[in-house]
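Apologies for my clumsy wording, but can you show me some protein sequence, whichever is easiest, together with the matching structure tokens, please?
=====
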Amino acid sequence: MYGESSTVYRAGRPRRRRRWPRVVIVVLLAVVLVAAAAVSATYLWAGTRLQQTEALTDYPDRPARGEGTNWLIIGSDTRADLSREEREELHVGGGGQRNTDTVMVLHYGAAGPYLVSIPRDSYVPIPGHGKGKINSAYALGGPELLTRTVEEATGLRLDHYAEIDFLGFTHVVDALDGVRVCLGEPLRDKKAGADLDAGCQTLDGRQALAFVRARYSDPEGDLGRVKRQRKLLSALVREGTGADVVADPFRLYPFLGSALDAVTVDRMDSVGSLTRMGWEIRGLTAGEGGTTTVPVANPGLSVPGVGSVVVWHPSGSRELFDQLRQDVPITATTVK
């Protein structure tokens, strides 16, 4: 009829508005908040476990800061905290003198990351002590003298410092249920306790320590050992940050706890900077940057009163450190 609305109203149940998008958003938000709380709690917990020491200090004519970031990563061979049984099991002998079995510089920035090994027998000036093997600087003056020795020998300004000891290293590896490595040929070294077959295998803490310490049966000596040290460090970080560890709190927290108990950093370092270091090393396993060793001129040179030493190649080592300081891709030596 004229004047009436032409709209037709259909009978039936009222239409319900779909609520699932809102529910999904709420659930996702809750998950994010729980995850953030867990991360924050983990970060605070880790901060209470972090061990710090005085390692990086100013001194007259200290190298100027370059581009990028430099870490000094060392492995301390102190036996002071090891029982007689532990020393025998780990094949580390006796004595309480503290040296450094591993000395590496991790550089990252616009270029890299690069992990550069410094042979422990490198013959360099040690401030206040004449010339000697670079690893002896730690025994003579602790982390402060070692970092200064490395800075003056390389011309690099160090930004961070990390140290791990023998027993702590084995605990970290065991917390991951071992670390997988592949060997092209067998590795036998009675002094280090290495007795490994060729092929891919999972090393426990004791075997991993022998793997990075063996050098007497290696034709390359200390130069061969530093390659294995870089290889194992990369494998350790790769497995420790893998999804099967990070997503499993029953594996993650034992690993983090053992790592924090084993590592000592400079007093200015934090859990955040240590996490960044691990992330950059993980990048190496993904094909970023590369690893190398300081170029040497004559490995195996014998110096009276010092023993067998390694002398750096004058121009090659200088060019390498210049490239690191400028934060440009390394071309001074072979990078793998």
Remarks:
- The first strand starts at residue 51 and ends at 53.
